[in-house]
Amino acid sequence: MEKLSDTQILCQNIKFLRQKHKLSKNKMSQILGIGTKTLTQIENGILPPRMSCEPLFRIQSHFGIRPQQLFSILSLRKT
Prior knowledge:
Helix 2 packs across helix 3 (36-43). The chain is mainly α. It starts with 5 loop residues before the first helix and ends in a 16-residue tail after the last helix. It has helices at 6-20, 25-32, 36-43, 54-63. The model has no long low-confidence stretch (mean pLDDT 90). 52% of the residues lie in helices and 0% in strands.
């Protein structure tokens, strides 16, 4: 099995959190302070080149997840 990059793990975790909490892409993008198109790109493994850290801090605030936890595979943990 190929090792996932930090970017891939981050992107998968954002999608995992949205699905786990049964949020629409529209609602999740509002939580993160980004557009739905940007969220779709992230969930497909593409980070915008100039994305700020703000969405990570919004995840921390909304879901109670520390930003560094987003770089380990959340679906294998109890969150």
